[in-house]
Structure formats: C-alpha cells, structure tokens
Amino acid sequence: MIVPHKPTSSSFFKKMGMRNNPSLLCLKEGCISLEFLYSRFGDEEGHENFHREFACSPVKWERYRLNAFVVALFGSLVFPREGDKIHTSLSYVVCMMARGEKTIVPMILAEILKALTRCTKGKRYFERCNFLLQLWAIEHFYVRDNLVDILRGGVGNNITNHPTRMTYFSSPVRTEDWFVYLRECSAIKIQ
C-alpha cells in the first residue's frame, strides 16, 4: 500500500488512544487484526473490558472509536490485505483525513494500478480495492445510447438512474467469464 508515512507500533497505539503494547507480534509486520480493533472499539464495553490497554479516559475513547471504525472500514473494504489483517499505516491516513490534510484518492488509484499490473503479469486474482474497481467497471463496461446525449446531460442524474442503466449491462459472473470478457474488450466497449 502506498501511504505517506509508516507509523511505528508506538505511534499506532498513540493514534488509537492506547498504551504501547510491543508484545503484539502482528504489529511487527505492520498490521493488526479486525478482531483486535472490534474487541477494543466496536464493543460498547471495550474501554471497560480493556481499560489497562488504554491511555485515555472513557470520554476520549468514544472519539477514538470513530477513528478505529474508519481504519477497520478502509482495511477491510478499500485496502484489504492477505489474511484479513489491517495495515497500521491506515491510522495515519485516517488522522490526516480527519484534519482535512489528505485524500485517499491517489492511494486508491495506486492500489488499483498495482493490482492490475500484477494481473497483466499473470496473477489470476485481483487483490486491492475490489469494491471500487467493481463500481468503476459497472459504470464503464456498458455502451450508452448516444455520446451527444451524454455530453448534453440527457442521461440525467447518474446516481438515481443507476438501477435503470444497469439493466442494459449484464456482467460476467464467473472468473473465467471475466477473463474472456476483458480479453475481448476494446476501447469502443468502454465509456
């Protein structure tokens, strides 16, 4: 994953309002489990159950819960890793986004490009930002009626018209079907 900064385990814990815990082996690899985040932040009694691990009051813990949720969301859906682990660098990204200093768009594009490059080299599984790539594919792999209508705005609101537009596109279902579809795909078929 391309991120502007890789936090140490102590800075990860600080960003999450926790005491440093160097005994966690997964942090040496730069990742944490979803179960770890959920047990400490997802459960309403997480602070009470793990109070010795937190360096903040229950009131401040409530604020850290939102950051933990966003880290878990990004780590699970947007930037998934092998073995259901969440990269600790996402805590830095979430903090920067909360301050309005950064955006994740370049990271998403870089992850998709890295995964597509791996696929062109023969890897048969797309591993990064799957959900976002799927949305892009659904929006671009069907032929619209007329380009002039699109430019004039004849299509209307793309969000409200999405279900109607998708009736004109039947996506491949199986992995092999996608391979065939993408091999036969030309620039005319992508808009």
Task: Provide the descriptors you would attach to this structure in a database record.
mainly alpha, two-stranded antiparallel sheet, 2 strands, Aminotransferase-like plant mobile domain-containing protein, MAIN-like, 191 residues, elongated
Question: How would you sum up this structure, described in words?
Answer:
With 191 residues, the chain is mainly α. The chain has 2 domains: 9-98, no CATH class; 141-189, no CATH class. The chain is built from 10 helices and 2 strands; from the N terminus they run H-E-H-H-H-E-H-H-H-H-H-H. The protein has a two-stranded antiparallel sheet. It is elongated and about 60 Å long. The two termini are 28 Å apart. The model has no long low-confidence stretch (mean pLDDT 77).
Unreliable residue stretches = none
The biggest sheet, with number of strands, parallel, antiparallel or mixed sense and barrel status, is: 2 strands, antiparallel
- Number of spatially distinct domains: 2
Helix content range: 40-55%
Number of strands: 2
Strand order of the largest sheet: 1-2
User: Number of DSSP helices?
Assistant: 10
Strand-residue proportion: under 5%
Q: Which structural category fits the helices and strands? A: mainly alpha
Distance from N terminus to C terminus (CA atoms, Å) equals 28 Å
Organism: Solanum stoloniferum
Protein name: Aminotransferase-like plant mobile domain-containing protein
InterPro entries: MAIN-like
